[in-house]
Amino acid sequence: xxxxxxxxxxxxxxxxxxxxxxxxxxxxxxxxxxxxxxxxxxxxxxxxxxxxxxxxxxxxxxxxxxxxxxxxxxxxxxxxxxxxxxxxxxxxxxxxxxxxxxxxxxxxxxxxxxxxxxxxxxxxxxxxxxxxxxxxxxxxxxxxxxxxxxxxxxxxxxxxxxxxxxxxxxxxxxxxxxxxxxxxxxxxxxxxxxxxxxxxxxxxxxxxxxxxxxxxxxxxxxxxxxxxxxxxxxxxxxxxxxxxxxxxxxxxxxxxxxxxxxxxxxxxxxxxxxxxxxxxxxxxxxxxxxxxxxxxxxxxxxxxxxxxxxxxxxxxxxxxxxxxxxxxxxxxxxxxxx
Amino acid sequence: xxxxxxxxxxxxxxxxxxxxxxxxxxxxxxxxxxxxxxxxxxxxxxxxxxxxxxxxxxxxxxxxxxxxxxxxxxxxxxxxxxxxxxxxxxxxxxxxxxxxxxxxxxxxxxxxxxxxxxxxxxxxxxxxxxxxxxxxxxxxxxxxxxxxxxxxxxxxxxxxxxxxxxxxxxxxxxxxxxxxxxxxxxxxxxxxxxxxxxxxxxxxxxxxxxxxxxxxxxxxxxxxxxxxxxxxxxxxxxxxxxxxxxxxxxxxxxxxxxxxxxxxxxxxxxxxxxxxxxxxxxxxxxxxxxxxxxxxxxxxxxxxxxxxxxxxxxxxxxxxxxxxxxxxxxxxxxxxxxxxxxxxxxxxxxxxxxxxxxxxxxxxxxxxxxxxxxxxxxxxxxxxxxxxxxxxxxxxxxxxxxxx
Lengths: 338, 404
Hints:
Strand content of chain B: 25-35%
Structural class of chain B: alpha+beta
Helix content of chain B: 10-25%
Strand content of chain A: 15-25%
Strand order of the largest sheet of chain B: 11-20-19-18-14-17
Strand order of the largest sheet of chain A: 3-2-4-5-7-6-12
Structural class of chain A: alpha/beta
CATH superfamily of the largest domain in chain A: Thiamin diphosphate (ThDP)-binding fold, Pyr/PP domains
Oligomer: heterodimer
Radius of gyration of chain B: 32 Å
Number of helices of chain A: 12
Shape of chain B: elongated
CATH class of the largest domain in chain A: Alpha Beta
CATH class of the largest domain in chain B: Alpha Beta
Number of domains of chain B: 2
CATH topology of the largest domain in chain B: Chloramphenicol Acetyltransferase
CATH architecture of the largest domain in chain A: 3-Layer(aba) Sandwich
Low-confidence stretches of chain B: 82-112, 158-162
Order of helices and strands of chain B: EEEEEEEEHHEEHEHHEEEEEEHEEEH
Mean pLDDT of chain B: 84
Radius of gyration of chain A: 20 Å
Largest interface: A-B, 45 and 43 residues
Low-confidence stretches of chain A: 331-338
């Protein structure tokens, strides 16, 4: 085990996989000479050369399409799209080609492509550069979408994504790049489609992924300290396939859930989770499933407004308290406990 | 409009005291605002609003203590009633000015008597064979939640499967049952009677040998005519009516302590205590002294049938001047009864049975019955009660005086 950042875990894993398999190559804007806008590909051009670390024109549809073609012919390209917002320019390539070729052509060609891309707001990048639109890809059969929240999962899921024969959208998050955690030395890939119980608890289930799984863990520890709450945290890790079983089993145990998401509430990932809970754990629910999500606005640029629009730590705590109150459990907020 | 009830703030909490209202009627309330501070057995806690709205009414003021589940305030949330709160979106905060987001779900108004309970509670109730309607809901809007069923199970949940009642006291296996309006009237009137009327009791034994013979003769004649038989009670009603006619001061009422007058009734209207399926009722046979025994019998039978069926009218149960209660048919030898106000006396009739008695210095087997008069000592003295009982006994022992 080594403590390293989420960023470093990604960089190390890309390097290890390029060393392990010569068919693995990287493509994207500014990933070579500039070493990536977020430095995930630092040092790789120098080590592996231009043939395997390709700086591309600013043309997402073009280089994503090229990577899909390369994947169909046996290479394992890892494409970096600078942020998930720009993936919209490659939407047709991803949705209509990467996701469908295997099925449409009777399995004659696989598309083992990985599209790495960070989502998330909070960096004052404005409305068009601060979105969480992984839902667009999680919606599409034929795609896999993974979203690690820790450095260890970043490694294990990137290993799994590169080795998977299906197209995988690998969601990173701008706010997570500098977070640190233990990363195992061995190169055991994660199982795509398997959520993780990141914290075992009995009082309430928090469901999140990516940054909101990270927030969930922080809140769970804080409320364990302040309120003595025993919160269970389910980190989805994979949005498609979705591990409904783990979510449902957790809610069967706790009887209530709050779903956290960085995207918009309406039609969001949280709606799918809430529906799954209703379907699989209906007879175990003691309170309505609550969702915490972003305000339904294009992300404001002004810092104060951006902060207000994003789901916060306090929003999560509030939703937990409301849900527990609906279950007949109130925290003592005055502290006059005898 | 949404009801806000005293919440369960701890597992052991039974009731709570309002310490401070943080909102006053007319104040805007947002989700998460502190509405009220509540003192429990353990601590003072803040209670937050579940829904946005305007505080419409404070029902329980500061300092008052109420049980959990009791209405403490009403919140106007823009709906006529709150059948169930839509999933609220706590983080959907700033709304775009150009495009208001549809985060508020419009719930159609459905007025039902449905018990609000979480799905978990419904499943647990099925598994433990509990009628959730008997549970008190302490969740939002009175929803029955797991805490309620857990508390119920902790108290009486070890009851055998198939038990269809909820125990309120496990040690006694106590079930709380609603009091019918009839029972409530009985309770109020009889406790008032026992509390305010100075009762005293005079018991007499009547030789009923001839009365029994006469009843047999009368019934043979009635049967020959195809008419309904009369009971011993019908004969006693007529006998009592005649005795009251001789002692009008027993057919009387104390008015009240402030009055300088008492009431003497010149009509003899005899109430007959009937144990109906709806509880004790006392239909009145008016002018019983004027009616034949067979008329009394027919009327008593009709009233008793009606009491057990559709029920008696107020008219049929009012206007009595004296009451007879007969438990003889249950094998009761003698008992005392509580006066039915505003009457002055009530006659408790025991069973008629064969006894060994001394008649002319010989032991003979005779039918005998015991009669106990309860009298209001404010208007009836012991001597008067005794005279009345002697008259009544003589009529019973010389039943030709009753007539048919």
